[in-house]
């Protein structure tokens, strides 16, 4: 199967099951299995009148159960897994102090749990500290034979688990890149944009941040592909994406929305400043030397998502409508989508007409972000 096809299938899959949800799902399954192993053992301890260890085993199993429930509900593992692992390790040391050297075999299980639930570096450090502490507790029971069999096995286990965790992190990093980065233009893709839009809908209602959206569409791109071939068309897209990235601030973000269409999210930027940015990009595209032979132009739709708004998707639709008008009314234009909160009506104006109208008004908005804050 070609890499691009694999990437597409992967993106379709991750669109329904986010990467972080996959993480929490694996944690949930693994910890649940550990619970169903340790809980019956605690019952066996009680059955054999080993009440002290039975209580410790029961406490550990209940902690694992609480962690599983927390992960299932919150879909997150941050911090909770560290707390439970730390408490479980303390219980492990208590069991060693009560049962002696015969309980050392359980350290291997807790080392494995550490690499499974927490950061690999912390898991390695925890393994070393847990082993040293356990050794000091039963130092008088340790024999030479025990030393030459137990510690080499523990060292080998840590090496294998550490390497396995490192490989897993590298694979997850690659997975994340395949899922969120467009391979051609090296900007974020539509999946990443949809996730960000969801985050904006949740965060804007709690903040005073104003965000503007602009949708950019290369004019007559099909003609470029038909005339110069798809290879050159791909190169045009890559150059176009670099030009956008060079024109925005590091705090802004650009996404390939589909085909020759891109989206820019300009943070802490109202309609006026975002419109000026869009116009500067439009001018740069038309005058960019490496794109001159293609007579390349771009149409752009811009709108502002007001602070405290909970429906960022509706503003994307407004920006898309503004883009449609810029394409319909001659292309190579910037159109702005304006929304009147009082009458709940939308209006659309071309960049030049909007700023001519604005310049005739007194007491202009002092919040306008200077275009100098963007890269030249």
UniProtKB/TrEMBL annotation:
Q: Where are the transmembrane segments?
A: 26-47, 53-72, 79-101, 121-139, 146-165
Which InterPro entries does UniProt cross-reference here? Diguanylate_Cyclase, GGDEF_dom, Nucleotide_cyclase, Rev_trsase/Diguanyl_cyclase
Cofactor entry: Mg(2+)
Q: Does the keyword Transcription apply?
A: no
Name of the protein in its database record: diguanylate cyclase
Q: Which organism is this entry from?
A: Cocleimonas flava
Catalytic activity, EC: 2.7.7.65
A GO biological process held by the record = cell adhesion involved in single-species biofilm formation
Into which EC class is this enzyme placed? transferase
Q: Which GO terms describe its cellular component?
A: plasma membrane
Q: Name one GO molecular function term.
A: diguanylate cyclase activity
The organism's lineage is:
Bacteria, Pseudomonadati, Pseudomonadota, Gammaproteobacteria, Thiotrichales
Keyword set, alphabetical order? Membrane, Transmembrane, Transmembrane helix
